[in-house]
């Protein structure tokens, strides 16, 4: 080899040695970084599939997450044989459970993304401690009156779980129910009454539901589920609850214990996009329920926008009566309407029932009302509701301005009486007795409420304490002084006349 070639070979060898010396640390650093990234990837997988806290699951992947965000566990090979995450078409995801806009008070709760499996509700959360106590939401489905400890809910009824537990307990690919559902988690005892169904369950639910501030009208529920009530046992004796539900939403379904057991037999998770849970015993754990002795009591302290009930009132009357029927009095046109026709005073007679007026007082009240009609103040209607069809009852109520009656189921009809500056409910009690049932309905439907004890009357602001045990409260000799009732009507109608 020539000297010149030896020289170039030496230069190449020296350069290669220097290059390797400088490059090795760099490649070592890159390799270390790669392995660290691989280790980090393992750290992400294991918090989801292994044992860890909720914070370990979320933080490495997504950072801060608000309730309602969808958490997607990473798919791929895993050492957990009970979780089949390897199929490319299977995506395990559980949107976290939330109570939208804080729509909750004892016994009435709205959930978004609530899960049901084998008869147990599951609320999934990054922090389960943020939910209300379980006993404020529901109870064991037993009749009131059993020892209070037996009514307390257990994990059999409702569980609060984190995301790791959701993957373990709820499986994957739940069956979705995307429209609005209300689950009445109660026995049949109080459901078989017009007042308890509409004046407590539906009205209380709607008051809490109305806390949700979303664009557009809130949809009426597509279904009511009654897990522990058998088919037909929810129907009231007058058979009015069912027809009114169909009038409110012709496609509504009432699903009882049979359908609930179907879900259990599937052994699959049911995912409710939005669901309301109503429970009487949970409502009565609230101090306001105890104060008023009413399930709906806790909802009466909520700040609800004015007119929240009117869309339901309008929907039912329009669907039941049809567009060709006489339209109910519209609050926006109340003056024009009352000028065209005399206001209607409806006296709902209970003389064929157990709780009723003394016969002589009933006759005297009818005489006083008809005299008022003869004087031209109003038109008086004195129906016996059980002799009328459902449509006839609602048609009559929908064009009434003032309703009179003894404390009882018939006064629930005020929910369909248009609200106005003059709409009034006059409720007759045995002197000394008082219940808040129909006063609460009056406040919700925006009617002025008067209670009458024979010849004495008082408004909502003057209401006494609840007293169910007054002697004669449920008897057939309830007294009333007709002129006292007529004086209230004159006062209310005089206000109407002066405004027109």
Automatic annotation (TrEMBL):
Q: Which domain of life is it from?
A: Eukaryota
Q: Enumerate the transmembrane spans.
A: 7-28
Coarsely, its chief localization is membrane
Q: Entry's Pfam families?
A: Glyco_transf_61
Per its record, what are the GO molecular function terms? protein O-acetylglucosaminyltransferase activity
- Protein location: Membrane
Q: Where is the Glycosyltransferase 61 catalytic domain?
A: 307-420
Which InterPro entries does UniProt cross-reference here?
Glyco_transf_61_cat (IPR049625), Glycosyltransferase_61 (IPR007657)
Identify the keywords attached in UniProt to this record, alphabetized. Answer: Glycoprotein, Glycosyltransferase, Membrane, Transferase, Transmembrane, Transmembrane helix
Recorded GO cellular component terms are:
endoplasmic reticulum; membrane
Question: Topology in the membrane?
Answer: Single-pass membrane protein
**What GO biological process terms does the UniProt entry carry, in alphabetical order?**
protein O-linked glycosylation via mannose
Entry-linked PANTHER family: GLYCOSYLTRANSFERASE, PROTEIN O-LINKED-MANNOSE BETA-1,4-N-ACETYLGLUCOSAMINYLTRANSFERASE 2
Protein name per UniProt? Glycosyltransferase 61 catalytic domain-containing protein
Organism per entry:
Rhodocollybia butyracea
């Amino acid at each position: 080899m020539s000297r010149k070639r030896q020289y170039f070979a030496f230069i190449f060898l020296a350069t290669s040695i220097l290059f390797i010396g400088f490059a090795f640390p760099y490649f070592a650093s890159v390799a270390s970084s790669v392995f660290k990234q691989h280790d980090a990837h393992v750290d992400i997988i294991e918090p989801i599939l292994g044992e860890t806290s909720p914070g370990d699951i979320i933080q490495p992947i997504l950072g801060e997450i608000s309730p309602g965000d969808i958490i997607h566990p990473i798919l791929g090979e895993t050492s957990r044989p009970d979780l089949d995450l390897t199929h490319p078409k299977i995506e395990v995801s559980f949107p976290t459970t939330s109570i939208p806009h804080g729509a909750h008070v004892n016994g009435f709760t709205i959930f978004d993304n609530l899960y049901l499996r084998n008869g147990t509700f599951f609320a999934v959360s990054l922090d389960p401690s943020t939910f209300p106590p379980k006993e404020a939401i529901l109870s064991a489905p037993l009749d009131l009156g059993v020892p209070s400890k037996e009514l307390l809910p257990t994990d059999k009824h409702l569980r609060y779980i984190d995301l790791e537990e959701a993957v373990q307990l709820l499986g994957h690919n739940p069956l979705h129910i995307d429209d609005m559902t209300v689950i009445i988690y109660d026995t049949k005892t109080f459901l078989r009454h017009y007042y308890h169904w509409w004046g407590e369950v539906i009205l209380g639910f709607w008051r809490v539901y109305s806390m949700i501030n979303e664009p557009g009208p809130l949809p009426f529920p597509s279904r009511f589920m009654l897990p522990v009530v058998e088919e037909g046992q929810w129907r009231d004796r007058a058979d009015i609850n069912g027809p009114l539900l169909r009038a409110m939403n012709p496609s509504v379904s009432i699903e009882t214990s049979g359908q609930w057991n179907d879900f259990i037999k599937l052994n699959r998770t049911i995912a409710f996009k939005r669901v309301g849970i109503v429970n009487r015993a949970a409502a009565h754990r609230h101090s306001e329920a105890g104060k008023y002795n009413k399930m709906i009591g806790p909802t009466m302290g909520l700040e609800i926008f004015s007119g929240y009930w009117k869309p339901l009132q309008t929907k039912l009357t329009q669907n039941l009566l049809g567009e060709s029927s006489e339209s109910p009095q519209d609050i926006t046109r109340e003056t024009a309407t009352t000028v065209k026709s005399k206001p209607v005073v409806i006296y709902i007679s209970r003389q064929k029932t157990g709780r009723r007026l003394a016969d002589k007082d009933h006759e005297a009240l009818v005489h006083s009302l008809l005299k008022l009609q003869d004087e031209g103040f109003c038109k008086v209607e004195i129906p016996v509701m059980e002799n009328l069809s459902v449509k006839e009852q609602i048609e009559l109520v929908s064009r009434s301005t003032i309703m009179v009656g003894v404390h009882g189921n018939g006064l629930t009809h005020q929910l369909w009486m248009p609200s106005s500056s003059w709409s009034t409910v006059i409720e007759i009690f045995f002197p000394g007795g008082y219940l808040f049932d129909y006063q609460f309905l009056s406040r919700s439907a925006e009617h002025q409420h008067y209670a009458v004890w024979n010849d004495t009357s008082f408004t909502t602001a003057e209401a006494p304490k609840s007293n169910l045990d007054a002697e004669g409260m449920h008897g057939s000799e309830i007294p009333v002084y007709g002129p006292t009732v007529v004086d209230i009507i004159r006062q209310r109608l005089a206000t109407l006349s002066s405004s027109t």
